[in-house]
Structure formats: C-alpha cells, structure tokens
Amino acid sequence: MSIEIVDPVAEAEEASPDRRTLRRLGWVGWISIGVIVLALLMAVLGPILAPFDPNQGDLSFANVGPFGQHLLGFDGQGRDVLSRLLVGARTAIFGAAAVALVAVVIGTTLALVTAWFGGKVDATASVVIDVVFAFPGILLAILAAAVFGPSLFSAGLALAIAYSPYVARVLRGAALKERAMTYIAALEVQGFGAWRLCARHLLPNISSLIVAQGTILFGFAMVDLAAISFLGLGVQTPQADWGVMVSEGKTSLLQGYPLVSISAVLCIVAVVAAVSFLGDRLDTSSKAVNR
Amino acid sequence: MSALLEVRDLTVQLKMDSGMREVITGTSLTIAEGEAMGLVGESGSGKSMTAKAIARLLPDGADVQGSVTFDGTDVLALDGDALRKHRAQVAVVFQDPRAHINPVRRIEDFMTESLRILESVSKPDAAKRAAAALEEVGIDDPGKRLRQFPHELSGGMLQRVMIATALLSEPRLLLADECTTALDVTTQAEVMAILDDLRRDRGLSMLFITHDLELAGAVCDRTCVMYAGQVVETRAASLLHGDPLHPYSAALVQARPDISSTAERLVAIPGRPVSAFEAPSGCRFAPRCPHAEDACRAEEQVLTELDGGRVRCRRAAELRGRLLDGAHV
Amino acid sequence: MSDEVRGPATRATLDDAQPVLSVRNLRKVFGTQVAVDDMTFDLMPGRSLAIVGESGSGKTTVARMICGLEKPTSGTITACGRDRSKPARRGSERKARGREVQIVFQDPYSSLDPRQSGAELIDEVLRVHHDHDAADRKRIVAELAEVVGLDQRQINALPKALSGGQRQRVAIARALATDPRVLILDESVAALDVSIQAQVLNVLADIRDDRGISYILISHDLAVVRQLTEETIVMQRGVVVERGETGQVLDDPQHPYTKLLRASVPGPGWKPQRMRDRIAAQA
C-alpha cells in the first residue's frame, strides 16, 4: 500500500535537485563516472597518449606478451596493443555515442509527434514504427553495408535507424501520459503553440527517461558496432578500433594468446556497464526528486 | 451497549524517506455493537490511518503504540490465522474501487475467491452467496453481473460490488474509508441508504470515514472529529452540526457553503491543515484558531467530558454556544 | 492592474448589455454517443453561471468546447464578439482567444508543470501574450500573487513544495494573467479540503467583484453552486433539463432529475433513500 503524505515544508528545505541527485549516486556511481571520464579522455587524447604507432607492426613480435614499455604486449601482427586500445577508443566511443544520439533524436521526435497529434498520425506512425521494429539492427547494418559499402558511417546510420522505434515506443507512452496532464491543456487554452508546449514543457518533463534511453542505447550500440566491425562491415582494418581488435584477436586467441581480445572486450564491458549504471541511477533519482 | 471496538491511546509512526513521522497521536475511540461512528477530518488528520491500524493494514515499518481491542481480542498482537479471521470480521471499503479489484478477472472470481480458498466453499455455493449479497446491495440481475468484468460496471455499481464482497465474510464492523467520495451525489445517496439498511438488518457496526461533516451527521450516531492526528471532539452526530464544542468543528461547519442560502462571505479557516508531525506544541489547532490564547499554545490539550461529548479544548466550556456566532447557520 | 500595460482592444469595445459569451445550439457527438445536445445560453459580463449534473452529463464537454480543447460537432460559440466554434488557424487568433476565456481545472496536482514555479509560469504567459519588459512582468506577477493570496516564497516555489490549495491559487493566477473576460471553473474547488475550499471560494468572489469577470462554474456540488453563481443550468445525459435563477432552481426544483439531485444532498435531517423505495413511493 502506498502512503502519500506530502511534507511540503521539509521537502522545500532540502537541497536543490541536482545536489540530491549527486548524493544518491553512491560509490558505484562514482566509479562509473570515473570510468566514463577515463574513456572520454582516451577517446579525445588517445592518439597523443599512444606510446607507439598503432598501425606499425613488426611480425617478429607477433603475439609477444607484455614487456618494457609495451604494457599489454603485441597483437598477431606485432602491433602494440596498448597503443591500439588508446587510438581505437575514439571510433568505439564516439561511434556508439553518435548512434545513440541519432536514435534518440529520431525516436523522441517520432514519439512527440505521435503523442501530440494522436489520431491518424499516431496510427500511421505506429505501423511504420512496428515495421522498422521488426528488423534486427545487425541485419539492417549488413544491408546498409551491401548497398553503401562497408564503413563505420553506414553501419552506424543503420543501427541508429534500427534503434529509433525502440526509443519512440517507450517515449510515446511517457509523452502521452504527459500530454494528458491538465497543465498542458491549460497552456493550450492560453494560446501556446504546439512547438512551445512540446519543447518547453512536454520534453523537459520526460527528459530523464530520454537520458535513460540514450544510455541504454549507447551500450547496445557499442556492442553492436563491435560485432559489425568483427564481421568486417564497420570500421575497416587496419584502423584501430575496439571491435576490430576483438575480431583481429581471434587468430591470436586460437593460437593460445587471448590478451588482445580480452583487453578490448574488457574496455567495451567497462564502458557499457558504467554508462548503463549511471543512466539508471540518474533516471531513478530524478524521478524521486521531481514528483 | 457494550463496545465492539475499543481504540485506546493509539499512536502511529510511519517510516518515510526523512525518518519516522508521527501520523496519529493518542487517538481513543469506541464503537458499540450496531453503532455507526463518523470519523471526520481534512487531509493529514490521520482518519484513514486510524482505519488502517484497526484493520491491521498499516504499511511495513509502522510503529504502533497503544491498544486496539475488537470483541475482547487484542488486535495489534494478532498474526497468521487469527489475523485473517480478524480481517474477515472487520471489512474495509475504500474510496476507489477500481484500484482494489483485478481488472482482468470476472466479478464472480473476485467476490468468491476468499470464500473458496479460505472457507473451502464449493464454486456453485460461493456463486450463490455472491449473488445473494449483490441482491442485498440493490444490484439487479446478479447472475449477469457476476459474469461481467470490472470495466463493464460504473463506479457506483463497482462500489456496491465491493460492499457486497465485504459482506460475504459476515463482518461485524465495516470500515468505510471515503467510500462515497468519488461517486455522484445520487449514487452516493443510494450507497449511503444501502449501508444504512445493512446496519439495521445485520446489526453491523460502522466506522464511516469522510471529509463531509454533513454526510457523517446524517448517517452516523456519533461523530468523531480529528485534526493533526488527534481526536478533537466526539459528539452525538445530530448535535455536532448545530452545536459543536471544539472551535475546529465549528470552523468546519462554517467553512462549508450552505445549499439553502448564499453567504456574503464564507468564514474560512486561515492556513492549511497540518499532519501530526508538523503540528506545533500545545493546542495543535491554535495557529488557525480565532479563539486561541497564549495558554492554548503553552499546554498540551486533553480530551475532557462536556455535555455528553468529549472535547480537546481548554476554552470549550467558556466558548459554549458562541462558536457559531455570526455564521449562516 | 493599470490599463497602459495590459490593453487588449476587446475590452473597450465591449458593451455591458452584450453577452460576453454566447452559446447557440451546441452539439457534440463522440462516435455514436451524443455528449451534448442543443445547448444554448448567454453569459452577461460580471455574471456567474453554473452548469450542474453528474458524471456523463456532458458538463465538462461543454467547458472543453468553450475553451477550445474540443471541437463542437455543430452549433456556435461566440466570446467577446469573436466566433470560436472552429479551431484557430493562426497563432495570433489562438492567443487572442486565450485572452478572452480561461479555465481552472479540478486536479491541482496535474495542472502545473512540475518544473516551473508560479512566478516563472505567469512570466511565460505574459511573454507569450504581451511585450512587457521584465520589470512590468515582475510587477504583474507580484500583483497576481497578491490577488490570489500567495506570498513571495510561495509564488516562487516549485509546485511540489505547495499544498493542493496553494497550487490551485497558482492555477487561478495563471488564468487571470491575460485578464480574461470569462473564467471557466471546472470543478476547481472539488478536490480541496473544506477549510481550503472556503478560502479559494472567497478569493474567487473577490476577483469577480474587483474585475467584473464572468464565471462558468462546472460543478456537482450544489452548495458551492449556491455560493458562487446567480444562474444555473442542470444537465442530464447531454441535455439541459432545467435552467433558472440558482436560488429558485435549488429551493424549488421542477424537473424530476433536479429534484433527485437536490434530495441527494446530505444535510441536517437528511435520510438517504434507496432507489427501489423511491420508485415504490412514486408508484
């Protein structure tokens, strides 16, 4: 049974919403932030930080373990693994972020339009969304690679389109609920236009959900992009990328040298986990703060 | 009349984000066999929590002090089968029936579930009893209603289903928690009439919780007014409206517009109702009371007998008969 | 509020003898359901009209059509001389309508944007409608806060820090910000505690006296209707069954449905009667 006893006085005296959100993060939250900051630093400064040329290989060092300045050893083609990880962070992280961002923008727009206009617009858009929803992202990416040629751009775009119905569905529900609130009706009576109501009132009130969707998609995108690169349809070798490294590592793996694949996989898992956790935390605590 | 239910010095604290918060402070009330007691108050007064404490439906982590005795048994100590039996004897009907009924089950399943499971009544027998109960609350064609789903019934009809369901366990006390608030006035009148009949026919006792003083006055024998987690007045229901003892009761009477005349200006109570944990020391109503003196604010007020009623106000005797001066009543 | 700051042209051109709101043969059909049928009434400046009825009577649909949230199936609605039966085509038309008729809803909890304080809300409304500078807007916000009885801290607080009654005051202030001629009160005090309800009813009475605004009160609470209005229309299943001066309708109802409504209101000496007994008594 829920208890609803509002205590306006005490609540008003609490710290501002942002400060409370930060306080609710907990230590796992702080570790997640640490991981994300580190990953971002790698993505931005990777090429500068890399101690060696990531593409310069010396086959005589193929699959040689860590020594000296080569903290993570060499891959199957004798390239420095640490340097490749640092340089490969950029496409892995920014690629996934771009996919998530584009999917969220498309999905949110669809959700707002369908929720706002309802009726035939909603019915038509819902059918389109359902159809796109039926395509697995990877399948769409393979299709895109077949049509436009394999590249990070075509794979990313295909993933973004494949993800957007997912966002649209979840947000449509939230947007419909918000649309039905009487404060929206009251402002409509005031003569406010649809654009202002959506942008300044409806959107901010579902923003925590949008952020949460974005973080979930970021995780999906990172894993899927890696998988696509693994298939050879995304980032092209010899360019360094975490997904490509997992792929390339498989030959070393078969030869009993797993360090290349493992280090790239660990990077992916750490970043995905950190972002997902943080998104989840921000979502729940902003819910607790706002209503 | 002997007391069927006796609540003595009930104090309840609930666990909230910000720690334990008191919602009821030292509430005492008795209900006799066959008596209807009105429990009136605004939000935060603790009236619903009192009912929940009696039915043992308080949320987890609630701290309960004092005693609740039903027909000689200590309610607060019950558990397991004994608690289930208690809940069968003390039925609760809530404000929003739709929140308390499974929308994908038929009315029959909902009504007969506990009969079949707890009392091992056969399905046809249970259905027969359910149909009889529906008839008792004035629902025509009960056979058809039993086969319907909740969404096919109107709010008033559903509330009568809830009352009929409560009757199936042969309760002796009915806790009606704002059970007519969400209904239209004509439906409310119908439901009130049904409750009135049930009381007479079955000798059912009733605790009728409402924010509507006039409604309580019309259907109850006695009315108990709560403010900020405390009982401030208990009085014969017929007297409360015209001759209240506590300034808060009087203020409630005056604040309501009158259907038979237009007031120049309503006598509003300044400020807002508070919960027990926000209440000031001394008399809890003092900040909003036009009759408050320094002494009211200084000392905790106690319930004292006055003229057949009980009132928690040190100036009650002195203010007697003057509380409604200048009002439209 | 001074006239040089807020000067919608409609005000001066209005004749006191002309109805501020005119509704003719209004009809609304949802699918096969007739929600409102052949509703006609006039509302004069400074007068208050109650539309009473139970859920499903169509009273809320009437309110939503008047303020433009629902499109009438047929019939006309004219406010301040402007036809509003069809949806507004242009933004300027929409805003002009917003300066004529406003509404306050029932639920104080969903009627405010949780991210906006009362002051920010009114400021936004003023910015949408007028070219006032920041100082003027600030002054109007302060004036409106005083009109509805909110202090500085309350008008600047987010809705979650306000009680139901305080939120409803903010909603009233928002509705008044554009100085409308007609204010629709859609069960606006129904969700409030008794003591708070009286405060808000007094505020509404004061506003009417000061501004000459007209009210349409949508309500099922006949006592509130008596307190706030001079005229009453009783609706049952989309149809007007009785209309007249409020006192007359309540003291001496003519239509059987109005009689039933009146008899269902609890009060001293009231005895609830079951439908079957009532029918038996009539037979």
CA-CA gap between termini of chain A:
18 Å
Task: Report the count of strand segments of chain C.
Answer: 10
CATH topology label of chain C: Rossmann fold
Structural class of chain C: alpha/beta
Topology order of chain A in helix (H) and strand (E) letters: HHHHHHHHHHHH
What's a concise summary of this model?
The complex is a heterotrimer of chains A (291), B (329) and C (283). By secondary structure, chain B is an alpha/beta fold.
Report what the structure shows.
The complex is a heterotrimer of chains A (291), B (329) and C (283). Chain A has 291 residues and is an all-alpha fold. Chain A has one domain (80-290): Orthogonal Bundle (MetI-like fold). Chain A has helices at 8-13, 17-23, 26-49, 81-117, 119-133, 137-148, 152-179, 182-189, 194-205, 207-230, 242-254, 259-290. The longest helix of chain A has 37 residues, at 81-117. The model of chain A is unreliable at 1-15 (pLDDT under 50). The two termini of chain B are 33 Å apart. The relative contact order of chain B is 0.14. Chain C has 283 residues and is of the alpha/beta class. Chain C has helices at residues 10-13, 59-66, 91-98, 118-129, 134-148, 152-155, 164-176, 194-211, 222-228, 246-251, 256-263, 275-282, and strands at 21-30, 33-43, 48-52, 74-79, 82-83, 101-104, 182-186, 214-219, 231-236, 239-245. In chain C, helix 4 (118-129) crosses helix 5 (134-148) and helix 5 packs across helix 7. Residues 1-13 of chain C have low confidence and may be disordered. The A-C interface holds A 6, 8, 11-12, 181-183, 185-193, 196, 200-201, 204-205, 290-291 and C 67-69, 88, 91, 94-99, 101-107, 110-116, 124-125, 128-129, 157, 160-163, 171, 174-175, 178.
